[in-house]
Structures
1.
Amino acid sequence: MSILNERAHTIAHVLIEALPYIRRFRGKTIVIKYGGNAMVDETLKQGFARDVVLMKMVGVNPVIVHGGGPQIGSLLKRLGKASEFVQGMRVTDDETMDVVEMVLGGLVNKEIVNFINRHGGSAVGLTGKDGDLIRARKLLLRRDAPELEATEIIDIGHVGEVESIDAAVVHMLVEGDFIPVIAPIGVGEDGRSYNINADLVAGKIAEVLKAEKLLLLTNTTGLLDAEGNLITELDVGRVHALIKDGVIAGGMLPKVQCALDAVHGGVKSAHIIDGRVEHAVMLDLFTDEGVGTLIRSR
Ligand SMILES: Nc1ncnc2c1ncn2[C@@H]1O[C@H](COP(=O)(O)OP(=O)(O)O)[C@@H](O)[C@H]1O
Ligand SMILES: CC(=O)N[C@@H](CCC(=O)OP(=O)(O)O)C(=O)O
């Protein structure tokens, strides 16, 4: 076979391999959590934008929820403010909340929108304030304090949890063939802004939209065990032990929690994948190559 024929053969093979997946996902909603750690360079960002546009073009409805933790961290650093996390959540005082809103609702959100639109899609950026999409309440963390034989409540400022989602604006955009790009900022009953972990927002949105799949793009090959090996499918019964032993920690805590909540809430499956791999979204959805950690209800 000539080199040209060989190339044509490979292209045909790849397209044919995608066919059953396109048929399966056509008309369905896929919620993609695009973590700040997966937005590391231009090539990856362009690859992500192309994948999302291709999904839309073949009839799948992507809804993006993005993070931006490292991007918030770097602006805080430039402003001389330290980043502090408790149980994977950023301690958010008044000044930090302003920075979070600027970075997530402004810089990061508009960059993703712009990338998608430059690659032929029609993306629209929103925060949870637009259309009253994400109603939030203050998140109070709990920590067992054996020395006091009690549970300690920790207040970490303007950090919220999702109280409710009004997805009307998202439905409207999807029906109009737009790609919604959502920043994880919620609004309280009193009109205050809340900084919400992006994984938690993605999980709830996936639930409310009855998504076919929740894809969580991060900076590891997936969930790793104590030896650093990839856990390809998460056994729900194992989760508590993994948390108790400190194997699931930091930013992986809300990720695993939201994936479990989403599948219990009706999302068919959740997948934690490596966003540092070029075209991670396309590989996961349209080929047999999907890797990472799969979480599904039993
Ligand atoms: N068991 C685990 N497996 C993989 N990553 C873990 C685990 N426990 C903690 N982590 C940490 O969680 C991080 C991913 O969470 P996070 O930094 O919040 O990413 P993102 O910005 O993509 O949401 C990993 O880079 C890793 O440092
Ligand atoms: C409360 C809380 O921690 N909010 C996160 C929101 C951004 C986020 O979740 O970004 P990644 O997905 O990139 O980590 C933060 O301030 O970093």
2.
Amino acid sequence: MTDHDVRVLDSSQLRDAHRLFCATLHFKPLEGEHWAQAAQTYHPGRTFGAFDGDAMIGTASSFASGLRVPGGAVVPMAAVSRVGVRADRTRRGILSALMRVQLEDVRSQGDVAASLRASESGIYGRFGYGVATRGQTVRIERRRAAPRAGVPSGGEVRLVDPEVALDGLLPTLFERIAFETPGAVVRWPEYWGSMSRRAAKEGDALVVAVHAGADGDDGYAIYQVTRTGHGLSGKCELVVHDLWAETPESRADLWRFTCDVDLVDEVVAPLRPLEEPVELLFADRRAVSVNEVVDETWLRLVDVPAALATRAYGDAPDVVIGVRDALLSDNDGNYRVGAGGASRTDSAAQLEVDVDTLAMAYLGDVRLSTLASVGRVRVADRDALASADALFCAQARPWAGTFF
Ligand SMILES: CC(=O)SCCNC(=O)CCNC(=O)[C@H](O)C(C)(C)COP(=O)(O)OP(=O)(O)OC[C@H]1O[C@@H](n2cnc3c(N)ncnc32)[C@H](O)[C@@H]1OP(=O)(O)O
């Protein structure tokens, strides 16, 4: 449907939009100083409302961000969030109208990509989003978690007042040590403040531990300790929200530190990278269980020519890939992808994909041959699949590590 009235909101309308969004996720609305703080996190001109007359019935917003792509370049990216449609107006095309307007808008503003974290996995594929990075949950049974002999160690972990850390130390450290992996996301200035507010809302104090090695600070962990149940029979969980390490020493020391916190039964770290070998840090590798592999980044390539031209490729013969995009027709076309780069071509496509499937392969998370094996790639030339796999392969498995 195209007849919904979707407009960009001005600052006087953001509170209604936030209330609407909170209600769709069954959260209480923010009041007083909590709303005043949240209001600061809206980036001007990036929030849309869908209206029925004067009544707002849906909303979608985004933060200005950036995405690290294979090869090291950073492309401008819209971090899409705060999407919701009023419960009495769902399934009438309102989200579809919001998505259409938002995608056209972010493309016209020069964003090469948009990404989001999806509340449900059935929603966003139809708008050209594909799962481009995944994460897994790491659980460590603390009492079994003795370090393995020979694990690197060196330096010191210290606790830092979260307010001080979030205000300067961690943003600087994050920029320096965390922002290298393909899939990493530029954290906008208000990101850090919203992290501490989210923690305050949940009621348990946020703890910041910083690791210093021989050359100074080189890693950090942000966690909360939550207790469930009553008295001594309760269970105590240490939940790691953010952990980045520059060196093997800081990685080992920070994980070990979380396992040394008294009274904790289990250390839980959701959405960690798929290739983080935490179990190898401990003498008893079964102290660590790794499960719940889930989607992390839903990526939408809004400017396919720019996205394909910006990332680096492996060394393999050129492949012509046809891209089909039902919503942003400028992306439609055939692209010659080779070790030297990618550009439009009139040559016939050897492989053809929809834009959501291209997003799944773009950062290197899934091979095109794997996607072909489940019918997501239309294959005209079978030999092209091996070349496409080699071209799109990234040096490191992509991971964002930033939830929004
Ligand atoms: C990035 C984020 O902010 S994630 C948070 C998203 N928000 C929420 O989850 C809050 C609760 N849910 C909602 O507010 C709404 O149900 C929304 C936003 C998910 C969907 O809004 P709607 O206006 O109902 O979507 P719309 O009517 O445009 O649906 C378009 C299509 O998606 C399908 N669809 C919509 N929601 C879902 C869903 N949750 N799961 C599967 N399919 C869905 C519809 O059936 C429709 O399919 P069709 O094109 O084959 O007919």
